[in-house]
Amino acid sequence: MKIELPEKKKLVFEMRIPIRWGDMDAMGHLNNGSYFRYLEIIRIDWMSAIGCKPDPLGEGPVIVNAFCNFYRQLEYPGDVLARMYVSDPGRTTFESWVTMARADAPEVICAEGGATTIWVDFPAQKAKALPDWVRQIVS
After folding, report:
1. What domain count does the chain have?
2. pLDDT of residue 50
3. Whole-prediction pTM value?
4. Of 15, 82, 89, 121, which has the fewest Cβ atoms less than 10 A away?
5. Closest of 79, 47, 73, 69 to residue 113, by C-alpha
């Protein structure tokens, strides 16, 4: 069963991630923990690309949940084509979604995942309204 991406999702980033031999498990396919690493890689690379550099003495994004659904095995060797979408900006949060396919079969989704991101004032350890520049990107 595939997750249903929101109607108003917005593609914001895509990248290729090489499948490394060490990402495999004893069954010869991508370890389930590696999918979460790939979700992290695309999320961090996207945030870096938009100039979102968290400041421990200021503010920035924090992931409050993450999930992944697995549909087909990914195996070494190969590259994963990861596509990141955003949706549902709230006062302090937005959703991110990622599809993962083999780069040599981009139409076949092997896994889908996502996360809820909340904007935080780090010293106060409190949620803070999304800055306007972030809201414009995720809307």
Report:
1. 1
2. 96
3. 0.90
4. 121
5. 69
